[in-house]
Design brief:
globular; mainly alpha; 32 helices; two-stranded antiparallel ribbon
Length: 824
């Protein structure tokens, strides 16, 4: 990069670091470190959580998806529009969870089910979350190496280090430093500042892309070149897509409902709001928050595709051909390390430079092709399937010959390395194209933006997974409570430990699947059964501990076996099947099982990929866990759970206005659908109605329902779809981006100032440390007596008194219920 770009990268990072360093003085207790003292407002939550949840790895994953599937894939996401509106406006799960005053999801699970379930869930959640996060450093560091044009190896004091490992170490150190200084307070403040600084960068990059690339002459010709069944623009012509298709969309929608609040990657944000209402309004603001950011990421992926596939941009030192060559050589050298790769490395280098194959290199390619041909013949597939596979292979060779030949060459030495090469090539394709597209200045601005996303996600996830291990595994097992100092020290040690694990996992783990698919399979270890337990626990009084255990064990078990199968398929499982003469029967069973669901579910037994993808495994875990949770709970429920006490409603309400949760009439039902209640100010109501009209009226009824019905009657040509997406992603998104950029910059700065004032005046409650006593949070001291200043020794001695009073309260409720039953 140019020196101007490096200045643009460094200055914002220094600003964020200084602000983050000054926030540590506000950390006075465990609640401050874990939940930012529960004093955050809606704009801080919206801006900061959006920055943290996005993440650099999510951007790379989005680039992968849109590069493969384009606008056509995104259109079917409109099915979820009304669902997402209702979830956001009603505060589905988020509002009730905040009402419990639980500091972590595990604390809620103990209140709702049992301490043993909290520990079991905490262990599974930690394993899934840490494995899910563990590739973040590698993807982020490799992005920086490729986008900034850094060498693959760096010599320092006579020692040679992989550059991406040094980048990982640097940014993990920064993340650990920020996260351990002030916990959630520092994380939330720095994420919010990074988000505010990012808004103008989004606007500038979008403006340049619109200026540089004409939609109709540069982008449209490229996206129209896709083969039938894999259209970039026509949602009714995507039946040939294997991974990111309609099934992927539908499972994602169902998962967003069932697993709402289940994923704890941004756990600190779920408990940081000053009230449940502010928590909900922060989510509602998320509809407008995206602005230029969502627009930018989609456009960059599509522009990169156009750059690499439009002949207009092929030639020259900054052309697409040079970009592909540099990417292919760098990715190949990144993977093919060591003496055993010398021959294929030299042969591939010669091919990239001249377009010709050396004799030895050509021989190794012929051997691999002959082996694959023999395996294909052994499968004895029907002619139509063989034809389909031939067309897919032909398309791959035509579109990406450098990728195909590189993978084939590596297969002659290591099939695993061939998969990793294909994964890196696919992940870095868009970043490399952007390096060639963006001018000096904007390269630095985009790099700064990506580093913001990298650091914000690292700090948030390290904090979340460490707090789950400490709060939901160690704390419940330990009989003697920690002192605040001990608890904070342990949290900081755990943050550093997880960072070290992530470094080594990222360094040694060879990713072989799309990022989105890796997310799906690792997250399913927890999400497979968690959604049923959490949603059922928040909304169904008959859910039981036995039902929760069953759902979580079965869902997580299926996901774990699926992950093992994917990892071991190429090297162990498939060779075992072939060597034992089982290929034909396994093929018939597996492919026959998916036949009724084709083309949306398409299982094929091939040597290079597990037949069932991650999203399909995820779907199986959701279906089974929900069914088992309901059945087992109904069989084991002896007494309905006291939901009012858990949610601090009715006679248990501690603060705020009395909220009427029952629905009275049609008008009240509509207001409840919009989430409007007694807590809403006039501005809140305007915001809720604006979100509803924009998302439901424009996003769902017009952009999805009207267009879909029209196309069922009369199919649009590609040009009509192109015009629609131009209006949607250029004109409308641009107008929303202009308004939201100004709106959220002002709102974020104003709300940050208010948050600091609340932190300075806040009183600490030493009992608010994540423990559960009896069946409520330990900070519910109002059930014992109102205490203005509770010292630690008193807090511990009051546990027995509190638990006894809770038992007495349960006995009185049982007696009252018995009398009511007798009267009836």
């Amino acid at each position: 990069m140019h020196w101007i770009d490096w200045i643009i990268v460094i200055v914002p990072m220094v600003i964020v670091g200084i602000i983050g360093f000054r926030t540590q003085k506000y950390v006075k207790g465990v609640a401050d470190f874990l939940s930012a003292g529960r004093v955050a407002g809606r704009y801080v939550i919206s801006v900061a959580s959006g920055e943290a949840a996005r993440g650099l790895i999510s951007i790379v994953a989005m680039f992968e998806i849109y590069y493969q599937s384009g606008f056509a894939y995104g259109f079917w996401g409109g099915i979820a529009a009304p669902i997402g509106i209702v979830l956001a406006l009603t505060g589905y799960c988020a509002y009730r969870f905040r009402e419990t005053r639980a500091m972590t999801m595990g604390q809620f699970l103990e209140i709702r089910y049992s301490r043993s379930f909290r520990v079991f869930a905490g262990i599974l959640q930690s394993i899934a979350g840490i494995l899910n996060y563990a590739i973040f450093p590698a993807v982020g560091a490799r992005f920086i190496v490729y986008f900034c044009g850094l060498p693959l190896e760096t010599v320092f004091l006579g020692w040679t280090f992989p550059t991406f490992a040094l980048i990982m170490a640097i940014f993990l150190f920064v993340a650990v430093f920020l996260a351990t200084m002030g916990g959630q307070i520092t994380i939330m403040v720095t994420d919010c500042v990074q988000g505010i600084l990012s808004y103008p960068i989004y606007a500038i990059i979008v403006a340049y892309v619109i200026y540089r690339f004409s939609w109709f002459s540069d982008i449209a010709p490229a996206i129209f070149s896709r083969p039938p069944g894999k259209s970039f623009v026509n949602p009714f012509d995507i039946e040939g897509l294997r991974n990111f298709n309609m099934f992927y969309v539908v499972v994602g929608i169902v998962g967003s409902i069932i697993n709402r609040m289940s994923w704890a990657g941004t756990q600190g944000y779920n408990t940081a709001a000053k009230t449940a209402h502010e928590q909900k309004m922060g989510g509602v603001l998320g509809t407008w928050r995206e602005g230029f950011s969502g627009m930018m990421y989609v456009l960059l992926a599509v522009v990169a595709f156009a750059f690499l596939h439009n002949a207009k941009f092929s030639d020259g030192p900054k052309g697409a051909n040079q970009c592909r060559t540099v990417l292919a050589q760098k990715a190949f050298d990144d993977v093919a390390k060591g003496e055993k790769y010398d021959d294929v490395r030299e042969g591939y280098k010669h091919y990239l430079a001249t377009g010709e194959l050396t004799e030895s290199f050509g021989v190794c390619l012929d051997e691999v092709k002959a082996e694959e041909s023999a395996e294909s013949s052994a499968k004895n597939q029907d002619p139509q399937k063989t034809k389909d596979f031939g067309e897919v292979a032909e398309n791959k060779i035509d579109k990406e010959p450098m990728l195909t030949i590189g993978k084939t060459a590596l297969q002659s030495v290591s099939k695993g390395k061939a998969q990793v090469f294909g994964t890196i090539f696919g992940q870095m394709r868009v970043p490399m194209a952007l390096k060639y597209i963006l001018p000096v200045g904007l390269v630095g601005a985009f790099c700064a933006l990506c580093i913001f996303l990298l650091v914000s996600t690292d700090t948030t996830y390290l904090h979340s997974w460490s707090s789950i291990l400490v709060q939901d595994v160690i704390l419940p097992i330990r009989r003697k409570p920690f002192t605040p100092k001990q608890q904070l020290t342990l949290l900081r040690i755990m943050i550093a430990t997880i960072a070290i694990f992530a470094f080594f996992f990222s360094y040694f783990f060879g990713q072989v699947d799309y990022i989105a698919m890796y997310f799906a399979i690792t997250a399913a270890i927890w999400l497979g059964g968690a959604g049923a337990c959490i949603v059922g626990g928040l909304y169904w009084k008959r859910g039981t501990t036995a039902g929760a255990f069953t759902a979580l064990i079965v869902g997580s078990g299926i996901a774990t076996f699926g992950a093992i199968g994917q990892k071991m398929w190429v090297g162990i499982i498939y060779p075992f099947i072939v060597n034992n003469g089982m290929l034909e029967i396994v093929t018939k069973i597996v492919e026959g099982a998916s036949a009724p669901f084709e083309p949306f579910i398409l299982w094929r037994v091939t040597p290079d990929k597990f037949p069932i993808n991650s999203q399909e495994i995820y779907a199986a875990t959701i279906i089974l866990s929900i069914g088992l949770y309901i059945i087992v709970s109904l069989l084991t429920c002896r007494k309905p759970f006291n939901m009012d006490r858990m949610l601090h409603r009715g006679k248990y309400q501690r603060e705020g206005k009395k909220i009427e949760h029952r629905i009275k009439g049609v008008k009240d039902a509509l207001l409840k659908l919009l989430g409007i209640n007694e807590e809403y100010s006039r501005g809140d109501k305007i915001l809720a109605w604006s979100v509803f009209i924009y998302s439901f009226g424009y996003g769902f009824l017009f952009l999805f329902v009207t267009v879909a019905v029209w196309n069922f009657i009369y199919r649009w040509p590609n040009e009509w779809w192109s015009n629609l997406f131009f209006i949607q992603f250029y004109i409308i998104a641009g107008l929303v981006g202009i308004v939201s950029t100004v709106w959220f910059m002002i709102g974020g700065i104003w709300d940050l100032n208010r948050m600091f004032k609340r932190l300075r005046s806040k009183e600490d409650n030493v009992l608010d440390d994540g423990r559960v006593i009896g069946n409520v949070s330990a900070d519910d001291v109002a059930l014992v007596e109102k205490v203005d200043h509770v010292v630690l020794e008193e807090a511990h001695s009051k546990e027995d008194v509190l638990e006894e009073k809770l038992k007495q309260e349960d006995d009185l409720e049982d007696l009252e219920n018995l009398h009511k039953h007798e009267d009836q």
